[in-house]
């Protein structure tokens, strides 16, 4: 199916995004978000998970957690373009929740051959995170350090996103028959979660260790399922970066419009105007690439993998650029705890590396365009 010129972003998608923006503005405005994570300004203590489970419960009631569950499996099965609008709104609010990871799990399960048990759990309101990265940060299931034998898991998964918030884990594990996906309840005996100290105060990350944990096998080819879902995961993460970038840009424009220097607003000077225009252009580029990747996934286009890599590579650049410019334009106040900009700066820095940074995605893109480099 050919991609529509508007990426398939219709009135229903716009309505979902508008609903999400209102929801996040009402439930967790930025001053409340700042207060929620305020104690994280003490670096000496162990990492904690700051979030409001009641907000997640409302998201589940709204049906957001099942947007990527196929309609034939009982979910809503919305086009990814519409889901991207929702995630863009969450990024703009920087709301701590397991929504993105649960949606990602739904995408992966959609490409698994035995996924019914996982879908049923998500339909019941369970949140879930992907657990497959190795200790070197490889976001490819082929490098998993978790072993499976007779449905029992042993080993560790690293850099597990939102591990402190989710109810379950979708684990890639190696067995004699290959690498497969397994469903594990986080509360199961033998599961231990060690929180990582990360810069992003709106997310959490952990190393999850499995010591003889019983698991349910959901897919026999984890690598193929993840590869098929990865462009969609990249598109959603890019949409999150766009939302956070738009908040940073809007906040910075408002600041330079009222902050005066030499009896003029800072925004009067071209040295301030032009960099902010460049930020706007970067955000718009990433937004176009994010929705293009989502549309390519929806239309099952041959260039879907390429579109996903383009979106996340651009998002990594934009995350860095929008965050650094916002802090710079705020001057000295931009480095203080009292200025909300740092919350988004830290979120963007985490998003920059999550599921592959710009270098990794461009290397993958080069492999697609020119072929793999000979060893």
TrEMBL record:
One of its GO terms (molecular function) is flavin adenine dinucleotide binding. SUPFAM superfamilies: Acyl-CoA dehydrogenase C-terminal domain-like, Acyl-CoA dehydrogenase NM domain-like. Residues 48-100 form the Acyl-CoA dehydrogenase/oxidase N-terminal domain. Residues 236-347 form the Acyl-CoA dehydrogenase/oxidase C-terminal domain. InterPro entries: Acyl-CoA_Oxase/DH_mid-dom_sf, AcylCo_DH-like_C, AcylCo_DH/oxidase_C, AcylCoA_DH/ox_N, AcylCoA_DH/ox_N_sf, AcylCoA_DH/oxidase_NM_dom_sf. Keywords: FAD, Flavoprotein, Oxidoreductase. Its cofactor is FAD. It holds the Pfam family Acyl-CoA_dh_1. It comes from the Bacteria. Belongs to the acyl-CoA dehydrogenase family. This is Acyl-CoA dehydrogenase.
């Amino acid at each position: 199916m050919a991609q529509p010129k508007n990426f398939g972003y219709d009135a229903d998608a716009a309505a979902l995004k508008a609903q999400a923006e209102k929801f996040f503005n009402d439930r967790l405005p930025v001053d409340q978000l700042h207060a929620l994570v305020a104690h994280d300004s003490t670096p000496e203590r162990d990492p904690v998970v700051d979030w409001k489970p009641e907000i997640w419960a409302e998201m589940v009631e709204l049906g957001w957690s099942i947007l990527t569950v196929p309609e034939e499996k009982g979910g809503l099965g919305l086009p990814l373009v519409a889901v991207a609008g929702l995630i863009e709104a969450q990024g703009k609010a920087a709301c701590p929740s397991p929504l993105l990871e649960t949606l990602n799990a739904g995408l992966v399960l959609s490409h698994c051959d035995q996924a019914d048990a996982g879908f049923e759990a998500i339909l019941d309101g369970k949140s879930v995170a992907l657990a497959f990265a190795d200790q070197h940060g490889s976001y490819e299931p082929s490098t998993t350090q978790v072993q499976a034998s007779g449905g029992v898991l042993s080993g560790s998964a690293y850099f597990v996103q939102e591990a402190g918030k989710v109810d379950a884990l979708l684990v890639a594990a190696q067995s004699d028959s290959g690498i497969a996906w397994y469903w594990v309840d986080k509360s199961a005996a033998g599961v231990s979660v060690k929180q990582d100290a990360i810069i992003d105060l709106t997310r959490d990350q952990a190393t999850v260790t499995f010591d003889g944990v019983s698991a349910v096998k959901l897919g026999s080819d984890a690598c193929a399922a993840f590869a098929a879902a990865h462009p969609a995961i990249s598109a959603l993460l890019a949409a999150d970066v766009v939302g956070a970038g738009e908040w940073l840009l809007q906040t910075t424009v408002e600041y330079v419009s009222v902050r005066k220097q030499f009896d003029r607003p800072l925004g009067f000077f071209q040295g301030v105007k032009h960099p902010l225009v460049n930020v706007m252009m970067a955000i718009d580029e990433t937004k176009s690439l994010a929705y293009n990747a989502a549309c390519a996934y929806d239309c099952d286009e041959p260039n879907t993998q390429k579109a996903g890599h383009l979106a996340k590579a651009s998002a990594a650049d934009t995350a860095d650029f929008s965050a650094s410019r916002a802090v710079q334009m705020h001057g000295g106040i931009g480095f203080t705890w009292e200025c909300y900009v740092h919350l988004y700066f830290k979120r963007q820095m985490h998003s920059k590396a999550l599921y592959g940074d710009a270098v990794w995605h461009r290397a993958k893109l080069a492999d697609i365009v020119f072929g793999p480099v000979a060893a």
